[in-house]
Amino acid sequence: MDYQAVLDEVAAYARPFVRQGEVADYIPALERVSPDRFGIALVDIDGSVYGAGDWETPFSVQSISKTFSLALVMAHAHDDEIWSRVGREPSGTPFNSLVQLEWENGIPRNPFINAGALVVTDRLQTLTGDASTTMLHFLREESGNEDLAFDQAVADSEADHGDRNAALAHFMASFGNLENPVPSVIEHYFWQCSIEMSCRDLATAGGFLARHGLRTDGSRLLEAREAKRINAVMLTCGTYDAAGEFAYRVGLPAKSGVGGGILAVVPGRCTLCVWSPGLDRRGNSVAGAAALDHFTTLTGWSVF
Ligand code: GLN
């Protein structure tokens, strides 16, 4: 398959969708991003890299980091402990919702909504002593980009507007579902969200999800069944309360973030990352979803 031709066609198809969404405005640091950007990268399991549009421009990974924190917890623990503290069912509610936590005794529905990611970050903190630095080092190694860094302005802005995430964390702590102090858990969570990466960096760093758990250097990060599980939870929960719609349109495991990025996996073949900052009301990139929809239509490479 001529990947470059496919990406060029997907980018042309997605262009008219680029201005349709709204750029995230819950923090000033994200609001400043131009809505006109669009990029797409594809990394084959053999490491070949292709891209179109703004595919080498860094953006705020935001909730895409939740994929990597879950993978790192599994890689460090290789046990099922995390699943006694977080579920794996779609929530059907917005990513920052509080409501289900009370019904379910402080156990979040899945690791990809904010509440679940806070629990995963807490576990990573216990396992490694420094959750956010562990993630940054891993992403640098896997992407091959030593320049990856936290964006201090974004992290500070998240903290300044972090009442909702703090509330989620305190509420879960009241049920005994956090091991570390709330301020430290939310601080590491904000740092993870603030990491700046391009489509190229993210598609490369997520390659272990397409290679059944093998890292870029061929060593094993996860057992194949662990990589399978992360992909399954991405498919069912990775795009929040639009996961059903996303499976219907795209049919790939995917994780979105309010920076406008979406990381998607074609297991056994490749990883893709799309970026366009305009979001739909569920917090998913409008042009990004359209691009992935068109990609699986052109290639026939959905998991179905
Ligand atoms: N930093 C954002 C938050 O915690 C991440 C949300 C997202 O990308 N969906 O609200």
Detail the topology: elements first, then pairings.
Elements: H1 3-14, E1 22-23, H2 28-31, E2 39-44, E3 49-53, E4 59-60, H3 65-77, H4 99-103, H5 114-128, H6 131-143, H7 152-160, H8 163-174, H9 182-194, E5 196-197, H10 199-205, H11 207-210, H12 224-237, H13 243-249, E6 254-256, E7 261-266, E8 270-275, E9 278-279, H14 286-299
Antiparallel strand pairs: 1-9, 2-3, 2-8, 4-5, 6-7, 7-8
Bound molecules: glutamine.
Protein name: Glutaminase
EC number: 3.5.1.2
Keywords: Acetylation, Hydrolase
Descriptors for this entry?
5-stranded antiparallel sheet; alpha+beta; binds glutamine; 304 residues
Q: List cofactors, ions and other ligands.
A: glutamine
CATH topology: Beta-lactamase
Helix content: 40-55%
State the end-to-end distance.
19 Å
* Gyration radius, rounded: 17 Å
* H-E string: HEHEEEHHHHHHHEHHHHEEEEH
Supply the CATH architecture. Answer: 3-Layer(aba) Sandwich
List how many beta strands DSSP finds.
9
Binding site for substrate: 63, 114, 158, 165, 189, 240, 258
Family: Belongs to the glutaminase family.
GO molecular function, one term: glutaminase activity
Keywords: Acetylation, Hydrolase
Detailed description of the structure:
The chain is α+β, with helices and mostly antiparallel strands. The chain has a single domain, classed as Beta-lactamase (3-Layer(aba) Sandwich). 47% of the residues lie in helices and 11% in strands. The chain has 14 helices and 9 strands. The chain has helices spanning 3-14, 28-31, 65-77, 99-103, 114-128, 131-143, 152-160, 163-174, 182-194, 199-205, 207-210, 224-237, 243-249, 286-299, and strands at residues 22-23, 39-44, 49-53, 59-60, 196-197, 254-256, 261-266, 270-275, 278-279. A hairpin with a 3-residue loop joins β7 and β8. α3 crosses α6 and α6 (131-143) packs across α10. The two termini are 19 Å apart. The structure holds glutamine. Residues 62-63, 95-96, 114, 158, 165, 193, 257-258, 283 line the site of glutamine (GLN). Glutamine (GLN) is lined by residues 62-63, 95-96, 114, 158, 165, 193, 257-258, 283.
